[in-house]
Design a protein that fits this description.
CATH architecture of the largest domain: 2-Layer Sandwich
Protein name: CLUMA_CG020267, isoform A
InterPro entries: Tctex-1-like (IPR005334), Tctex-1-like_sf (IPR038586)
Number of helices: 4
Number of strands: 6
GO molecular function: dynein intermediate chain binding
Family: Belongs to the dynein light chain Tctex-type family.
CATH topology of the largest domain: Ribosomal protein S3 C-terminal domain
Organism: Clunio marinus
Largest sheet: 3 strands, antiparallel
Structural class: alpha+beta
Length: about 180
């Protein structure tokens, strides 16, 4: 067995993430590994490392978190559809807020929660694959004041998406945001 390899495994036995990166990036050290296929059990961390050429799977036991590798798919089978999300958000907000004509701070909190739960439920029924759905509904009273509402997002613009709808009534304005954030 390669002594250099054993030394690296001993040094990084508590850092499985770093071990994985080293075994893939250090091609020069592990070129002679092409014939090896072995299990190495470490008694100190109660872990096991299965090694193949340029491939490592670390399995943690005894209450330590398990680390999974990414799946083979890089794209969603059913990606987030902005048009469907916008349609759902508009329908739910119009249906719920059209029944109310006055702002009431005590009951509008429950109304916001109900609207966001309804939108979330309908969005989950669409089964957008590999997306986390986040819904935020805000109600602001119209009482001779202004409001500046801004949002900043740090995400992948090719896969992540957001939809916003503003419902205006005589005594309040409701702002609904629906985010579809891609999970890898």
């Amino acid at each position: 067995m390669n002594m250099k390899l054993l030394k690296i495994i001993e040094l990084f036995c508590h850092h499985s993430l770093i071990l994985h990166e080293i075994l893939i990036q250090e091609d020069a050290i592990f070129q002679d590994m092409s014939t090896f296929n072995f299990w190495f059990a470490m008694s100190e961390t109660k872990s096991s490392i299965k090694m193949h050429p340029k491939h490592v799977v670390v399995v943690m036991r005894a209450g330590l978190p398990m680390r999974y590798q990414n799946s083979y798919r890089l794209e969603s089978k059913n990606p987030f559809n902005r048009e469907q999300a916008e349609k759902i958000l508009i329908e739910v907000m119009e249906d719920n807020f059209s029944k109310y004509d006055r702002f009431d701070a005590k009951t509008d909190v429950d109304l916001c929660q109900k609207v966001s739960e309804d939108v979330l439920k309908l969005m989950k029924e669409k089964r957008f694959d590999r997306y986390r759905i986040i819904v935020i509904v805000t109600i602001v009273e119209k009482f001779m004041q202004g409001i500046h509402y801004k949002q900043k997002n740090l995400w992948d613009s090719r896969k992540d998406c957001s939809v916003t709808h503003v419902y205006k009534a005589a005594s309040f304005t409701a702002i609904g945001n629906c985010y579809g954030v891609y999970l890898e």
